[in-house]
Amino acid sequence: MRSEPFTADVIIAGCGPAGAMLAAELRLHDVRVLVLERESEPAPFVRIVGLHVRSIELLAMRGLLERFLAHGRQRPAAGFFAAIAKPAPAGLDSAHAYLLGISQPVLVRLLEEHAVALGAQVRPGAAVAGLEQDDQGVTVELAGGERLRTRYLVGCDGARSTVRKLLGVGFPGEPARNDTLMGEMAVGASPQEIAARMAAIGETTRRCWIRPVGVGVHSVVVPAAGVGDRAAPPTLEEFRRQLRAVAGTDFGVHSPRWLSRFGDATRLAERYRVGRVLLAGDAAHIHPPIGGQGLNLGVQDAVNLGWKLAAQVRGWAPDPLLDTYQAERRPVAADVLDNTRAQLELMAPEPGPRAVRRLLTELMDFEEVNRHLTEKIVATAVRYDFGAGPDLLGRRLRDIDVRGGRLYDRLHRGRGLVLDRTGRLTAGGWSDRVDHLADPTAALSAPAILLRPDGHVAWIGDDQRDLAEHLARWFGRPGA
């Protein structure tokens, strides 16, 4: 048994969206957190990413949404699946049924600032080089030889995760077969010329488009010549060369804001946990960015894991609780990988995929089909397996009206919540971990529910004894 003092309760490798969000979630429960970020400076390029409905809801649940809205641009929740141009489906079950476009560096900065304000420590320029774990904790070795001690380590260090490799966790799937260039820049061609060229090549090349994203700025996407090193951004000349090869003109592109490339590799970690070491975000799963799901998937991993890992550190977690992280989130990632595979097939230039795409385009005129595919992308359709029960069981609950305001305003502290329309129930001995709101006027089609800190419905009913059993299942022994 080692006797070295713990540097932190949890060390997180990587301060991207998943790592920063996880740090903040842990700090809501007074867990000592150290985030190690291998890069000394933020990325030099500015990539615009999209926050989907479920991620926006999670920000609202933690009281963060307004500051993100101030830095982003709201767009309709439409045209996500294989870039098939259909309007947003009616009746999306959310008070936040839109896409929020935001600069990724700004998003990471806001999440990091939130985590630091809650008490997390962030060390830039600190790269994990080795790890050893035992029954009491994990010893983390940095690239410079420094050794740190922690109760738990979480690898949020991206697709090439050092933590995952050190653990020896397999990362099976398909390697990249195609690369695509993506960037934002000015163009010299007229809107009419761009529209005509895109229409001419649209039936055979789905991976090429030029779209305005601001005054004088266009998003440019074009197939790359081959599979390259995505650690090195492409050059403007490479964009021009590929545009000429695909569209017959380079459209006079100039003055790039950022340039990058992405591949279509698709991989899923065999395990999300090995003892006291866990994986989240791109360290656990990678896939093509079709539909814009990757960053969102990582943020949602963090919110699922944060309260469970905090419970383990604080000593009140039921024995199986931490294992539910993999049990719940790995199937979600597998489903995302499958839908991105399907979308890529629908964007292939061969006659067969083009015929299937035309058929699906017709089917999406049916509201049910359009909504089903959209809900897959925006993650509002996720349902965890909590056993038999009403359809709402295991699903997240939308932000409904409750006494004194909105439901999500009651979830800012990352605690559980009993929403009780009967007025007869209580959180009892779990009141240090679970809040209770008696509200007969709540817009809820159930007598009472138990919400986990991630907003998923863990119980539905009206019996105090049954509620107590489910409180113990998710929140441990009363008074622990």
Structural overview:
Strands 1, 2, 6, 7, 8, 9, 16 and 17 form an eight-stranded mixed β-sheet that branches. A four-stranded antiparallel β-sheet has the order 12-13-11-14, covered by helices on one side. Helix 1 runs parallel beside helix 4 and helix 1 (17-27) packs parallel to helix 8. The chain has 480 residues and is α+β, with helices and mostly antiparallel strands. Helices cover 31% and strands 24% of the residues. It starts with 7 loop residues before the first strand and ends in a 5-residue tail after the last helix. A hairpin with a 4-residue loop joins strand 7 (128-133) and strand 8 (138-142). The protein contains twelve helices and 24 strands. The mean pLDDT is 94. The chain is globular and about 70 Å long. It has three domains: 8-173 and 267-378, FAD/NAD(P)-binding domain (3-Layer(bba) Sandwich), CATH 3.50.50.60; 179-263, Alpha-Beta Plaits (2-Layer Sandwich); 401-475, Glutaredoxin (3-Layer(aba) Sandwich), CATH 3.40.30. Keywords: FAD, Flavoprotein. It holds the Pfam family FAD_binding_3. It comes from Actinoplanes nipponensis. One of its GO terms (molecular function) is FAD binding. Residues 8-340 form the FAD-binding domain.
